[in-house]
Structures are given as C-alpha cells and as structure tokens.
C-alpha cells in the first residue's frame, strides 16, 4: 500500500511537471524577461519542497517529523531565494563584494547549518528513546 507521504510527493511532482509544461508550451524563453526564472523556482519549489510544505502545514508527521519538514522548507526557500539574487543581481557589488559571492556564502552557510541542525535533532531524538 502506498503511504500518505508517497502519494503527496507524487502529487507535488505532477504539479511541478504541469507547471514546467505550461511554461514550455507558452514558449517562454530567456529573452522574455523574468518568467522563465519564476518557472524554474516554481518547478523546483514544487518538486523538492511542495510535499513537505503541504504535510507541514497540515501537521502530519508521517515518516518525517513536522519540525524537520519546516526546517527543510525553510532551507529550500533560502536556497531558491539566494539563487534568484545571484541570477538577477550577482554582478552588483556591496562594499566591493559582489552579490554573487554573498549569495554563495549564504547558500553554503544555509546548507551547513541545516546539516548541523538536523544532526543535532536526530541525535536528541535517538537519545530520548
């Protein structure tokens, strides 16, 4: 029997591909402005985080605790937001440091802090059992 998590992940994947096909069917290309980038963020946001966001909002644990789902969705939002900043303003500078460099540092720190936070949470949950 298919678990609730699996069915929600499959629905999010399907929604992501529907969004991607809509962007592709209307022949939206890089020369048409910001729409392809929004399509990129929408596709990856739905495919990678849509199911986690849905299950976190509903408060359903399933195979993953709700707090872990919220941490993952937050990390994904920061990564997608930083990638947008890098894409649109990566060559601009703040105090002689490019926004692309700042964005990459934000991405690195986000991933490292996510891994450390999940490791600590996993350790604590194993110690309480």
UniProtKB/TrEMBL annotation:
The chain crosses the membrane at residues 35-57, 69-89, 95-117. Keywords: Membrane, Transmembrane, Transmembrane helix. It comes from the Archaea. This is Uncharacterized protein.
């Amino acid at each position: 029997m298919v678990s609730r998590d699996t069915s929600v992940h499959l629905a999010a994947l399907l929604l992501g591909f529907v969004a991607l096909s809509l962007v592709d069917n209307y022949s939206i290309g890089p020369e048409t402005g910001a729409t392809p980038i929004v399509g990129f963020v929408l596709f990856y946001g739905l495919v990678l985080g849509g199911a986690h966001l849905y299950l976190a909002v509903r408060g359903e644990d399933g195979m993953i605790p709700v707090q872990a789902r919220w941490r993952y969705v937050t990390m994904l939002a920061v990564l997608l937001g930083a990638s947008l900043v890098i894409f649109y303003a990566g060559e601009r500078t703040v105090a002689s440091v490019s926004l692309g460099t700042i964005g990459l540092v934000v991405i690195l720190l986000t991933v490292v802090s996510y891994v450390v936070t999940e490791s600590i949470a996993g350790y604590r949950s194993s110690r309480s059992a």
